[in-house]
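REVIEWER CHECKLIST
Item 1: Sequence provided? yes
Item 2: Single chain? yes
Item 3: Sequence as submitted:
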Amino acid sequence: MSSRKIVVIGGGAAGAMAAGHAAAEGVEVILIEKMPRIGRKIAISGKGRCNLTNAGDIRDFIKYYPSNGKFLYSSLSQFTNTDVVNFFKRYDVETKVERGGRVFPTKDNSEVIVKALENFLKDNGVKVFLQTPASNVLVDDKKQVHGVQIKSGDIIQSDAVIVATGGASYPGTGSTGDGYDIARELGHHVVTPLPALVPLKTQEQWPKELQGLTLKNVEASLWINDKKQAREFGEMLFTHFGISGPIILTLSRYAAQALSKKQKVAIKINLKPALSFEQLNLRLQRDFQKYINKLFRNSLDDLLPKSIIPTIIKLSGINPDKVVNEFTKEERKKLVSLLQDLPLNIIGTLGLATAIVTSGGVDVKEVNPTTMESRLIKGLFWAGEVLDVDGVTGGYNLQAAFATGYKAGKAAAQYVLAK
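Item 4: Structure as written out by the authors:
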């Protein structure tokens, strides 16, 4: 065992991966975690099932990180999705692939992932100190790391420090933005942390009436200051406060950024994106012909989920008791427009407390992407969500955490061994 020492701050996905791989190089590693157990956020990810990576082509991963994806190029090529799966397989965790390439443990339980990481740390002799929050990273006059001070006031001397404290989302798991304070104190720029992958609040109250309704194969488009900025196809959910579900979560990071700038934000839902305006108009004509003597409120059962029909009728402004054969061409076109352009004004997000990840963080321009080392402080390394990198849903965020953790751990070990 080398007399050289590394301290890792944070025992999440990135921190555990960094600590174990650094120790595997023969360096003494101490991991400090402020919670009573490592991996608290992993334990709740994927609704407790843990979507640990994605089975897609690793060469395509970069595009799934809206913020600074290119920064991850080196990390993802060094520790791929296949490497993640094989790593956990060594700890008897079998995996399966679900819709959208999402990779889960076959046991559908995140506990097996946390346990595997605990065993990985143990196997490599990492000393884990729980309920030990860091206060600050100590740096000498030469801008070189020499230790970590913990909240008790004690100092742990070290030759390198890896900060893997996570973002500011799900603070109950320990991710309370501590790493941002450390970064600022050391002179790093922190891009304003905002919620990403977060449900959205709507000005309209009608989504509340549809609470629990999931829509599949719909398209949601994001409009900022009346300009279309992005769109997503897939599944969404109505809630008591507004909207959620995979496609809404993906759009939410842009919505949160726009809202923080006081910009006007709207989501428009296309309930029938597979059909053009004319095709849907013809479809409605056929349905109306079929139900020619029925009332409007009883004529949409073939086209829409039953629970959304009263809302659509109300929003259309057309008399629900109007007989279908009395519809004018203009009324039918008005209905088609509504079905393909259902507007919702977004007034907020549910905030960092419920966000799956954080956008923003330590500015990656100040971090070397091939080593994860700070460009400002020697021996200071960064990994995981504390960095200004975030991905869409589907396992991409944990993949980034594992890959940057691996990279930081290996590079930090090489750094201290070369001293």
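Item 5: Key structural point noted by reviewer: The chain has a mean pLDDT of 96.
Item 6: Recommendation: ____
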